[in-house]
Amino acid sequence: MPHTQHSRRNFLSGTSALLAAATASAAFPWSAKAFANTMAVDRPRVGCIGLGGMGRGDAHGHRSFGDIIALCDVDESQAAKANEDPNIGAGKADLCTDYRKVLERPDIDVVSIVTPDHWHVKIAIEALIAGKHVFCQKPLTLTLEENQLIRNACRKYSDRVFFVGTQQRSDQERFLRAVNMVRRGLIGDVRKITVGINGGDVGGPFRKSDPPAGLNWDMWLGQAPKVDYIRERCHNTFRWWYEYSGGKFTDWGAHHVDISLWATGLDQEGTGPVEVDGTDVKHPVPFRDGYPEQDDRFNSAHDFNVIAKFASGMEMHITSRGDNGILFEGSKGRFFVNRGKIAGQPIEENWDKDQFGPEQLQELYKGKPFEGHKNNFYRCLAEGGLPVSDVYSHVQTMNTCHLAVIAARLNRVIKWDAKTEKITGDDQAASFFARTPRAGFEIARV
Q: Could you tell me what percent of the chain has a pLDDT over 90?
Protein backbone atom coordinates (compact mmCIF):
# COMPACT_ATOMS: atom_id res chain seq x y z
CA MET A 1 0.00 0.00 0.00
CA PRO A 2 1.43 3.43 -0.91
CA HIS A 3 2.51 5.44 2.09
CA THR A 4 0.05 8.24 1.24
CA GLN A 5 -2.96 5.96 1.43
CA HIS A 6 -1.69 4.32 4.59
CA SER A 7 -1.09 7.57 6.43
CA ARG A 8 -4.42 9.05 5.29
CA ARG A 9 -6.33 5.94 6.30
CA ASN A 10 -4.67 5.99 9.73
CA PHE A 11 -5.54 9.66 10.13
CA LEU A 12 -9.16 9.31 9.06
CA SER A 13 -9.92 6.11 10.94
CA GLY A 14 -8.04 7.28 14.00
CA THR A 15 -9.82 10.59 14.07
CA SER A 16 -13.20 8.99 13.49
CA ALA A 17 -12.64 6.68 16.42
CA LEU A 18 -11.67 9.56 18.64
CA LEU A 19 -14.71 11.53 17.53
CA ALA A 20 -17.00 8.60 18.17
CA ALA A 21 -15.64 8.28 21.68
CA ALA A 22 -15.82 12.03 22.20
CA THR A 23 -19.39 12.23 20.97
CA ALA A 24 -20.43 10.01 23.85
CA SER A 25 -19.44 12.84 26.13
CA ALA A 26 -21.25 16.12 25.59
CA ALA A 27 -18.30 17.87 27.21
CA PHE A 28 -16.01 17.33 24.21
CA PRO A 29 -15.22 20.76 22.74
CA TRP A 30 -14.45 20.54 19.03
CA SER A 31 -12.05 23.43 18.74
CA ALA A 32 -8.63 24.10 17.31
CA LYS A 33 -6.99 23.49 20.67
CA ALA A 34 -8.96 20.36 21.49
CA PHE A 35 -8.38 18.87 18.05
CA ALA A 36 -4.66 19.58 18.15
CA ASN A 37 -4.29 18.04 21.58
CA THR A 38 -6.35 14.98 20.67
CA MET A 39 -4.41 14.41 17.46
CA ALA A 40 -0.95 15.13 18.88
CA VAL A 41 0.36 11.67 17.91
CA ASP A 42 -1.28 11.52 14.46
CA ARG A 43 -1.83 14.99 13.06
CA PRO A 44 -2.36 15.61 9.36
CA ARG A 45 0.72 16.91 7.59
CA VAL A 46 0.25 20.10 5.63
CA GLY A 47 1.98 21.65 2.64
CA CYS A 48 1.35 25.35 1.99
CA ILE A 49 1.57 26.68 -1.57
CA GLY A 50 1.51 30.48 -1.83
CA LEU A 51 2.73 32.40 1.19
CA GLY A 52 1.85 36.06 0.82
CA GLY A 53 -0.15 37.77 3.55
CA MET A 54 -3.29 35.65 3.06
CA GLY A 55 -1.22 32.51 2.62
CA ARG A 56 0.56 33.07 5.91
CA GLY A 57 -2.73 33.85 7.60
CA ASP A 58 -4.23 30.56 6.42
CA ALA A 59 -1.06 28.73 7.42
CA HIS A 60 -1.48 30.00 11.00
CA GLY A 61 -4.92 28.42 11.05
CA HIS A 62 -3.77 25.11 9.60
CA ARG A 63 -1.01 24.77 12.18
CA SER A 64 -3.64 24.55 14.92
CA PHE A 65 -4.81 21.27 13.38
CA GLY A 66 -1.80 19.80 11.62
CA ASP A 67 1.95 19.95 11.17
CA ILE A 68 3.23 22.22 8.40
CA ILE A 69 6.14 20.36 6.84
CA ALA A 70 6.49 22.07 3.44
CA LEU A 71 6.32 25.71 2.33
CA CYS A 72 6.29 26.70 -1.32
CA ASP A 73 6.30 30.05 -3.12
CA VAL A 74 7.79 31.22 -6.43
CA ASP A 75 9.12 34.15 -4.42
CA GLU A 76 11.79 32.67 -2.16
CA SER A 77 11.47 35.52 0.33
CA GLN A 78 7.79 34.70 0.99
CA ALA A 79 8.54 31.08 1.87
CA ALA A 80 11.49 32.11 4.03
CA LYS A 81 9.32 34.60 5.93
CA ALA A 82 6.73 31.90 6.61
CA ASN A 83 9.38 29.47 7.81
CA GLU A 84 10.78 32.03 10.22
CA ASP A 85 7.34 32.49 11.77
CA PRO A 86 7.11 30.34 14.94
CA ASN A 87 3.40 29.84 14.22
CA ILE A 88 3.97 28.47 10.70
CA GLY A 89 7.23 26.72 9.82
CA ALA A 90 9.08 27.44 13.05
CA GLY A 91 12.31 27.03 11.09
CA LYS A 92 11.63 23.35 10.45
CA ALA A 93 9.64 23.18 7.20
CA ASP A 94 11.14 22.22 3.87
CA LEU A 95 11.17 25.12 1.38
CA CYS A 96 10.73 25.03 -2.38
CA THR A 97 9.67 27.23 -5.30
CA ASP A 98 7.96 24.52 -7.42
CA TYR A 99 4.54 23.38 -6.14
CA ARG A 100 5.00 19.98 -7.79
CA LYS A 101 7.61 19.11 -5.18
CA VAL A 102 4.89 19.48 -2.53
CA LEU A 103 2.35 17.39 -4.42
CA GLU A 104 4.76 14.53 -5.10
CA ARG A 105 5.50 14.01 -1.41
CA PRO A 106 3.67 10.94 -0.04
CA ASP A 107 3.88 12.24 3.53
CA ILE A 108 1.66 15.29 2.89
CA ASP A 109 -2.07 14.88 3.58
CA VAL A 110 -3.39 18.42 3.13
CA VAL A 111 -2.46 21.13 0.64
CA SER A 112 -3.30 24.79 1.28
CA ILE A 113 -3.41 26.81 -1.97
CA VAL A 114 -3.20 30.59 -1.62
CA THR A 115 -1.64 31.65 -4.92
CA PRO A 116 -2.85 34.34 -7.33
CA ASP A 117 -6.24 33.36 -8.77
CA HIS A 118 -5.02 32.17 -12.18
CA TRP A 119 -3.04 29.34 -10.55
CA HIS A 120 -5.77 27.96 -8.27
CA VAL A 121 -7.46 25.36 -10.47
CA LYS A 122 -4.33 23.91 -12.06
CA ILE A 123 -2.68 23.27 -8.70
CA ALA A 124 -5.92 22.12 -7.08
CA ILE A 125 -6.68 19.48 -9.70
CA GLU A 126 -3.13 18.16 -9.57
CA ALA A 127 -3.37 18.03 -5.78
CA LEU A 128 -6.54 15.92 -6.02
CA ILE A 129 -4.85 13.60 -8.51
CA ALA A 130 -1.95 13.28 -6.05
CA GLY A 131 -4.36 12.16 -3.34
CA LYS A 132 -4.35 15.31 -1.21
CA HIS A 133 -7.15 17.03 0.64
CA VAL A 134 -7.37 20.65 -0.52
CA PHE A 135 -8.05 24.00 1.15
CA CYS A 136 -8.04 26.63 -1.60
CA GLN A 137 -8.65 30.32 -1.28
CA LYS A 138 -11.32 32.16 -3.23
CA PRO A 139 -12.00 33.03 -5.96
CA LEU A 140 -11.43 29.42 -6.97
CA THR A 141 -11.51 29.93 -10.74
CA LEU A 142 -10.50 32.34 -13.49
CA THR A 143 -12.88 31.23 -16.26
CA LEU A 144 -16.23 29.52 -16.82
CA GLU A 145 -14.39 26.50 -18.18
CA GLU A 146 -12.31 26.20 -15.01
CA ASN A 147 -15.58 25.93 -13.05
CA GLN A 148 -16.43 22.78 -14.98
CA LEU A 149 -12.92 21.35 -14.76
CA ILE A 150 -12.67 21.65 -10.98
CA ARG A 151 -16.21 20.37 -10.45
CA ASN A 152 -15.44 17.31 -12.57
CA ALA A 153 -12.24 16.67 -10.64
CA CYS A 154 -13.98 16.90 -7.28
CA ARG A 155 -16.64 14.46 -8.44
CA LYS A 156 -14.01 11.99 -9.60
CA TYR A 157 -11.98 12.29 -6.40
CA SER A 158 -14.93 12.56 -4.04
CA ASP A 159 -12.99 10.86 -1.22
CA ARG A 160 -10.85 14.01 -0.93
CA VAL A 161 -12.17 16.96 1.07
CA PHE A 162 -12.10 20.18 -0.93
CA PHE A 163 -12.78 23.41 0.95
CA VAL A 164 -13.04 26.91 -0.55
CA GLY A 165 -11.90 29.77 1.68
CA THR A 166 -15.06 31.89 1.65
CA GLN A 167 -15.01 32.71 5.34
CA GLN A 168 -18.32 34.58 5.38
CA ARG A 169 -20.00 31.15 5.40
CA SER A 170 -18.76 30.84 8.97
CA ASP A 171 -20.04 34.20 10.28
CA GLN A 172 -22.95 33.25 12.53
CA GLU A 173 -24.08 36.65 13.77
CA ARG A 174 -24.29 38.34 10.39
CA PHE A 175 -24.12 36.29 7.20
CA LEU A 176 -25.53 33.00 8.47
CA ARG A 177 -28.38 34.89 10.10
CA ALA A 178 -29.00 36.68 6.80
CA VAL A 179 -29.02 33.44 4.82
CA ASN A 180 -31.40 31.82 7.27
CA MET A 181 -33.72 34.85 7.23
CA VAL A 182 -34.06 34.69 3.45
CA ARG A 183 -34.22 30.91 3.13
CA ARG A 184 -37.10 30.75 5.60
CA GLY A 185 -39.09 33.25 3.57
CA LEU A 186 -39.23 35.76 6.40
CA ILE A 187 -38.83 38.73 4.04
CA GLY A 188 -41.10 37.18 1.40
CA ASP A 189 -40.14 36.73 -2.23
CA VAL A 190 -36.77 38.32 -2.94
CA ARG A 191 -37.16 40.80 -5.76
CA LYS A 192 -33.80 42.58 -5.74
CA ILE A 193 -30.38 42.06 -4.24
CA THR A 194 -27.81 44.84 -4.29
CA VAL A 195 -24.30 43.45 -3.96
CA GLY A 196 -21.90 46.25 -3.05
CA ILE A 197 -18.29 45.25 -3.72
CA ASN A 198 -16.56 48.63 -4.23
CA GLY A 199 -14.48 49.45 -7.29
CA GLY A 200 -11.09 48.21 -8.39
CA ASP A 201 -7.93 50.26 -8.13
CA VAL A 202 -6.85 52.73 -10.80
CA GLY A 203 -3.15 53.17 -11.43
CA GLY A 204 -0.35 53.49 -13.94
CA PRO A 205 1.50 53.79 -16.14
CA PHE A 206 3.85 51.48 -14.27
CA ARG A 207 7.54 50.92 -14.96
CA LYS A 208 8.73 47.68 -16.55
CA SER A 209 11.88 46.20 -15.05
CA ASP A 210 13.77 43.02 -14.34
CA PRO A 211 12.09 40.85 -11.70
CA PRO A 212 13.71 40.92 -8.26
CA ALA A 213 16.20 38.24 -7.30
CA GLY A 214 14.49 35.22 -5.83
CA LEU A 215 11.26 35.62 -7.84
CA ASN A 216 10.62 33.19 -10.69
CA TRP A 217 8.54 35.55 -12.85
CA ASP A 218 7.93 33.01 -15.61
CA MET A 219 6.52 30.54 -13.08
CA TRP A 220 4.49 33.28 -11.41
CA LEU A 221 2.85 34.03 -14.76
CA GLY A 222 2.08 30.36 -15.35
CA GLN A 223 -0.74 29.93 -17.84
CA ALA A 224 -1.08 33.72 -18.32
CA PRO A 225 0.52 35.46 -21.32
CA LYS A 226 4.24 36.14 -21.14
CA VAL A 227 4.83 39.83 -20.39
CA ASP A 228 7.58 42.01 -18.97
CA TYR A 229 7.78 42.21 -15.21
CA ILE A 230 5.90 45.10 -13.60
CA ARG A 231 5.94 45.16 -9.82
CA GLU A 232 2.25 46.11 -9.71
CA ARG A 233 1.27 42.99 -11.67
CA CYS A 234 2.58 40.83 -8.85
CA HIS A 235 1.70 40.02 -5.24
CA ASN A 236 -1.12 42.06 -3.66
CA THR A 237 -2.09 44.07 -6.74
CA PHE A 238 -2.35 41.17 -9.22
CA ARG A 239 -6.15 41.24 -8.88
CA TRP A 240 -6.49 44.51 -10.78
CA TRP A 241 -5.40 42.79 -14.02
CA TYR A 242 -7.85 40.60 -15.93
CA GLU A 243 -4.93 38.38 -16.96
CA TYR A 244 -4.77 37.00 -13.41
CA SER A 245 -8.14 37.73 -11.81
CA GLY A 246 -11.59 39.19 -12.37
CA GLY A 247 -11.02 42.37 -10.40
CA LYS A 248 -13.61 43.18 -7.78
CA PHE A 249 -16.19 41.01 -9.57
CA THR A 250 -14.37 37.88 -8.43
CA ASP A 251 -12.46 39.29 -5.44
CA TRP A 252 -15.42 40.51 -3.34
CA GLY A 253 -18.01 38.96 -5.62
CA ALA A 254 -16.80 35.54 -4.51
CA HIS A 255 -17.98 36.53 -1.01
CA HIS A 256 -21.13 38.59 -1.48
CA VAL A 257 -22.54 36.93 -4.60
CA ASP A 258 -21.96 33.63 -2.81
CA ILE A 259 -24.04 34.65 0.22
CA SER A 260 -26.75 36.05 -2.06
CA LEU A 261 -27.11 32.87 -4.09
CA TRP A 262 -26.88 30.62 -1.03
CA ALA A 263 -29.66 32.58 0.66
CA THR A 264 -31.97 32.44 -2.36
CA GLY A 265 -31.34 28.77 -3.19
CA LEU A 266 -29.66 29.67 -6.47
CA ASP A 267 -26.39 27.95 -5.59
CA GLN A 268 -27.37 24.61 -7.14
CA GLU A 269 -26.22 23.29 -10.50
CA GLY A 270 -28.57 24.32 -13.29
CA THR A 271 -29.46 27.62 -11.62
CA GLY A 272 -28.11 31.04 -12.47
CA PRO A 273 -28.90 34.27 -14.25
CA VAL A 274 -30.52 34.29 -17.68
CA GLU A 275 -29.09 37.68 -18.64
CA VAL A 276 -26.23 39.88 -17.45
CA ASP A 277 -26.10 43.56 -18.37
CA GLY A 278 -22.61 45.09 -18.45
CA THR A 279 -23.43 48.35 -20.21
CA ASP A 280 -22.89 50.53 -17.12
CA VAL A 281 -19.18 49.85 -16.61
CA LYS A 282 -16.01 51.92 -16.74
CA HIS A 283 -12.46 50.61 -17.03
CA PRO A 284 -9.26 52.56 -16.28
CA VAL A 285 -7.90 51.81 -19.79
CA PRO A 286 -9.54 51.66 -23.22
CA PHE A 287 -10.83 48.24 -24.35
CA ARG A 288 -11.27 46.76 -27.82
CA ASP A 289 -13.23 43.54 -28.33
CA GLY A 290 -13.01 42.86 -24.61
CA TYR A 291 -9.24 43.28 -24.25
CA PRO A 292 -7.27 46.22 -22.76
CA GLU A 293 -5.28 48.33 -25.20
CA GLN A 294 -2.60 49.32 -22.69
CA ASP A 295 -0.34 46.90 -20.83
CA ASP A 296 1.19 49.16 -18.17
CA ARG A 297 -1.92 50.15 -16.21
CA PHE A 298 -4.46 48.33 -14.05
CA ASN A 299 -7.24 47.16 -16.35
CA SER A 300 -10.08 45.68 -14.27
CA ALA A 301 -13.34 47.65 -13.89
CA HIS A 302 -13.33 50.43 -11.31
CA ASP A 303 -16.85 51.92 -11.68
CA PHE A 304 -19.80 49.68 -12.46
CA ASN A 305 -23.35 48.53 -11.91
CA VAL A 306 -23.78 45.14 -13.56
CA ILE A 307 -27.31 43.71 -13.45
CA ALA A 308 -27.88 39.95 -13.41
CA LYS A 309 -31.48 38.96 -14.13
CA PHE A 310 -32.92 35.61 -13.09
CA ALA A 311 -35.84 33.61 -14.49
CA SER A 312 -37.93 34.40 -11.41
CA GLY A 313 -37.70 38.12 -12.19
CA MET A 314 -35.22 38.75 -9.38
CA GLU A 315 -32.42 41.18 -10.16
CA MET A 316 -28.96 41.21 -8.65
CA HIS A 317 -27.11 44.52 -8.97
CA ILE A 318 -23.37 43.99 -8.61
CA THR A 319 -22.07 47.47 -8.02
CA SER A 320 -19.09 49.58 -7.04
CA ARG A 321 -21.38 52.33 -5.79
CA GLY A 322 -22.62 52.59 -2.23
CA ASP A 323 -21.70 50.57 0.84
CA ASN A 324 -19.84 47.28 0.70
CA GLY A 325 -22.35 44.60 1.66
CA ILE A 326 -25.61 42.98 0.60
CA LEU A 327 -29.08 44.56 0.58
CA PHE A 328 -31.86 41.97 0.36
CA GLU A 329 -35.25 43.37 -0.72
CA GLY A 330 -38.27 41.09 -0.43
CA SER A 331 -42.02 41.44 -0.75
CA LYS A 332 -42.35 41.68 3.06
CA GLY A 333 -39.22 43.56 4.08
CA ARG A 334 -35.59 44.39 3.49
CA PHE A 335 -32.32 44.32 5.40
CA PHE A 336 -28.61 44.94 4.88
CA VAL A 337 -25.64 42.84 5.95
CA ASN A 338 -21.89 43.20 5.72
CA ARG A 339 -18.89 42.22 7.84
CA GLY A 340 -19.60 44.95 10.34
CA LYS A 341 -23.36 44.81 10.85
CA ILE A 342 -26.74 43.37 9.99
CA ALA A 343 -29.54 45.95 10.08
CA GLY A 344 -33.08 46.67 9.00
CA GLN A 345 -36.63 46.23 10.30
CA PRO A 346 -36.59 42.40 10.10
CA ILE A 347 -33.47 42.41 12.27
CA GLU A 348 -34.55 45.13 14.70
CA GLU A 349 -37.89 43.39 15.24
CA ASN A 350 -36.34 39.91 15.41
CA TRP A 351 -38.49 38.37 12.70
CA ASP A 352 -36.36 35.25 13.02
CA LYS A 353 -37.02 34.82 16.75
CA ASP A 354 -37.05 31.09 17.58
CA GLN A 355 -36.12 30.35 13.96
CA PHE A 356 -32.34 30.80 14.13
CA GLY A 357 -30.62 28.43 16.49
CA PRO A 358 -28.44 25.28 16.54
CA GLU A 359 -30.91 23.34 14.38
CA GLN A 360 -30.91 25.95 11.61
CA LEU A 361 -27.13 26.37 11.83
CA GLN A 362 -26.64 22.62 11.51
CA GLU A 363 -28.87 22.65 8.45
CA LEU A 364 -26.68 25.34 6.86
CA TYR A 365 -23.60 23.32 7.81
CA LYS A 366 -24.90 20.27 5.91
CA GLY A 367 -25.68 18.31 9.05
CA LYS A 368 -22.55 19.25 11.00
CA PRO A 369 -22.44 21.59 14.01
CA PHE A 370 -21.62 25.25 13.54
CA GLU A 371 -17.95 26.05 14.15
CA GLY A 372 -15.01 27.95 12.74
CA HIS A 373 -14.00 27.76 9.09
CA LYS A 374 -10.96 25.51 9.37
CA ASN A 375 -12.60 23.52 12.19
CA ASN A 376 -15.23 22.48 9.66
CA PHE A 377 -12.58 21.54 7.10
CA TYR A 378 -10.70 19.28 9.47
CA ARG A 379 -13.91 17.80 10.86
CA CYS A 380 -14.79 16.75 7.30
CA LEU A 381 -11.39 15.09 7.00
CA ALA A 382 -12.32 13.00 10.02
CA GLU A 383 -16.01 12.41 9.39
CA GLY A 384 -16.45 12.76 5.65
CA GLY A 385 -19.20 14.79 4.02
CA LEU A 386 -19.19 18.13 2.26
CA PRO A 387 -17.82 21.19 4.06
CA VAL A 388 -19.88 24.33 4.59
CA SER A 389 -17.91 26.03 1.80
CA ASP A 390 -17.99 23.42 -0.96
CA VAL A 391 -16.83 23.45 -4.57
CA TYR A 392 -20.23 22.77 -6.10
CA SER A 393 -22.02 25.84 -4.72
CA HIS A 394 -18.92 27.98 -5.22
CA VAL A 395 -18.89 27.12 -8.92
CA GLN A 396 -22.40 28.57 -9.20
CA THR A 397 -21.18 31.78 -7.58
CA MET A 398 -18.23 31.96 -9.93
CA ASN A 399 -20.46 31.44 -12.97
CA THR A 400 -22.30 34.64 -12.08
CA CYS A 401 -19.06 36.49 -11.28
CA HIS A 402 -17.37 35.46 -14.53
CA LEU A 403 -20.46 36.39 -16.54
CA ALA A 404 -20.31 39.83 -14.91
CA VAL A 405 -16.66 40.12 -15.98
CA ILE A 406 -17.43 39.13 -19.57
CA ALA A 407 -20.41 41.48 -19.84
CA ALA A 408 -18.30 44.28 -18.34
CA ARG A 409 -15.34 43.69 -20.66
CA LEU A 410 -17.61 43.77 -23.70
CA ASN A 411 -19.81 46.54 -22.26
CA ARG A 412 -23.03 44.85 -23.31
CA VAL A 413 -25.85 42.47 -22.38
CA ILE A 414 -25.11 38.74 -22.63
CA LYS A 415 -27.44 35.74 -22.35
CA TRP A 416 -26.71 32.63 -20.28
CA ASP A 417 -28.28 29.18 -20.39
CA ALA A 418 -27.81 27.92 -16.84
CA LYS A 419 -28.79 24.34 -17.74
CA THR A 420 -26.19 23.92 -20.48
CA GLU A 421 -23.80 26.46 -18.93
CA LYS A 422 -23.28 28.29 -22.20
CA ILE A 423 -23.39 31.91 -23.35
CA THR A 424 -25.95 32.02 -26.13
CA GLY A 425 -26.44 34.17 -29.22
CA ASP A 426 -23.08 35.93 -28.98
CA ASP A 427 -20.01 34.17 -30.38
CA GLN A 428 -17.64 36.88 -29.20
CA ALA A 429 -18.89 36.70 -25.62
CA ALA A 430 -18.83 32.89 -25.78
CA SER A 431 -15.14 33.04 -26.75
CA PHE A 432 -14.39 34.20 -23.19
CA PHE A 433 -15.67 30.86 -21.81
CA ALA A 434 -12.10 29.57 -21.66
CA ARG A 435 -8.56 30.81 -22.08
CA THR A 436 -5.80 29.05 -24.00
CA PRO A 437 -2.94 28.60 -21.53
CA ARG A 438 0.72 29.06 -22.37
CA ALA A 439 2.41 25.89 -23.52
CA GLY A 440 3.61 23.87 -20.56
CA PHE A 441 0.99 25.26 -18.19
CA GLU A 442 -2.09 23.34 -19.35
CA ILE A 443 -4.74 22.31 -16.81
CA ALA A 444 -5.31 18.59 -16.37
CA ARG A 445 -8.62 17.15 -17.58
CA VAL A 446 -9.92 14.29 -15.45
A: 90
Provide the β-strand partners of residue 49: 72, 113
pLDDT at 83: 98
Q: Structurally, how many domains does the chain consist of?
A: 2
Span 208-239, pLDDT tens digits: 999 999 999 999 999 999 999 999 999 999 99
In a domain, 59, yes or no: yes
In this model, does residue 27 exceed pLDDT 50? no
Q: Which residues contact 173 (CB under 8 A, 6 or more apart)?
A: 342
Phi first, then psi, for residue 199 (nearest 5°) are: -100, 160
Q: What is the dihedral of CA 268, 270, 274, 280, to 10 degrees?
A: 50
Residues 156 and 179 in one domain: no
Q: Which amino acid is at 338?
A: N
Q: What is the pLDDT of residues 69-85, one digit of tens each?
A: 999 999 999 999 999 99
Give me the pLDDT at residue 214, please.
97
Phi/psi zone of residue 308: left (φ > 0), alpha (ψ -120 to 50 degrees), beta?
A: beta
Half-sphere exposure of 322 (CA within 13 A, CB side): 13
Extended strands (E) in 186-332: 190-196, 208-209, 229-230, 275-277, 281-282, 287-288, 291-292, 303-309, 315-319, 325-330
Q: Is the pLDDT of residue 19 over 90?
A: no
Residue among 194, 193, 195, 189 nearest 330 (CA)? 189
Please state, in angstroms and rounded to a whole number, the distance separating the CA atoms of residues 29 and 34. 6
What pLDDT shows up at residue 42?
67
Displacement of CA 390 from its chain's centroid (Å)? 9
CATH number of the domain that residue 15 is part of: 3.40.50.720
| Judgement on whether residues 184 and 81 belong to the same structural domain of the protein | no
Measured at the CA of 184, the angle between CA 178 and CA 186, to 5 degrees, comes to: 75
**What is the rounded distance in angstroms from the CA atom of residue 376 to the CA atom of residue 65?**
11
Q: What would the pLDDT profile of 271-285 be if each residue is shown by its tens digit?
A: 999 999 999 999 999
CA distance 189 to 176: 18
Tens-place pLDDT, residues 352-382:
999 999 999 999 999 999 999 999 999 999 9
**d(C-alpha 318, C-alpha 165), whole Å:** 21
Task: Evaluate whether residue 39 is within a structural domain.
Answer: yes
